[in-house]
Design goal:
Length: 240
């Protein structure tokens, strides 16, 4: 099961445990906890098998939406992805900041920034991936983690981003240790870009907080950034 589904089960079991403890006071039937646990586990298994954990994501995200700090962290994480993708010429298709909006838009998972990866998919079919393209996508995938580290000093999110990187690395059949080095390099590259364009990043955070359309976000970046939007150190092979 995914971590989100496991979290959902844990929350449900906690609630059931509380019902056992409070049952005598609230006159809850003794059979209720057992039925509830079996039901929750059954739904969790079906959710993971048939809907890729969508129900679990919605349930957990419902609790997270109650936390303003959590919303702010997600916002800054996704703004990092958006800005670095813009800088490295990877088209942004759409974005969401929670599982509910992602579900309404028909997106998988808990939301985030969606990229147009048609060029990457096409190249991967050939079995070869130019170093420059690899650097660009790795940097964009690690940009959310970099944004959290820049703002908060450490990253809590980014599991899906790391999974995307791992899948790509496995497809390339490259050594695991080399992949770990590449991850750290990409985080540093993304953080350098975000720090260099801090004003644009802050403007983008404000726009995304208002749920501005992608087109408006792109226009905002175009108007707040200088013409030399990309940086040579990330565009080069950088020795990999």
């Amino acid at each position: 099961m995914s971590q989100t589904t496991l979290n959902t089960v844990a929350i449900a079991i906690f609630l059931v445990t509380m019902s056992v403890l409070l049952g005598p006071l609230l006159d809850i039937p003794q059979a209720f906890p057992a039925i509830a646990i079996v039901s929750v586990l059954g739904v969790a298994i079906i959710d993971q098998a048939s809907w890729n954990g969508t129900l679990g994501n919605l349930f957990v995200n419902g609790f997270n939406r109650l936390s303003g700090d959590e919303r702010e962290r997600v916002l800054r994480h996704e703004a990092g992805h958006f800005l670095v993708a813009y800088l490295l010429d990877i088209p942004v298709v759409d974005y969401t900041l929670n599982a509910w909006d992602a579900w309404k838009k028909g997106m998988p998972g808990v939301g985030g920034v969606q990229f147009d990866t048609a060029d990457l998919d096409t190249v991967l079919k050939t079995g070869q991936l130019p170093a420059q393209m690899l650097n660009r996508y790795c940097t964009v995938w690690m940009a959310g983690i970099a944004a959290e580290k820049m703002v908060y000093g450490q990253a809590q999110g980014g599991r899906d981003d790391l999974q995307k990187f791992s899948i790509l690395w496995q497809q390339l059949q490259r050594p695991i240790q080399e992949g770990q080095v590449r991850q750290r390099w990409a985080v540093l590259q993304a953080q350098n870009l975000l720090e260099k364009h801090k004003e644009a990043y802050d403007e983008l955070v404000n726009a995304m907080a208002e749920d501005a359309p992608v087109r408006d976000c792109l226009d905002l970046l175009a108007s707040t950034m200088s013409s030399d939007a990309t940086t040579p150190e990330t565009q080069n092979d950088s020795g990999f």
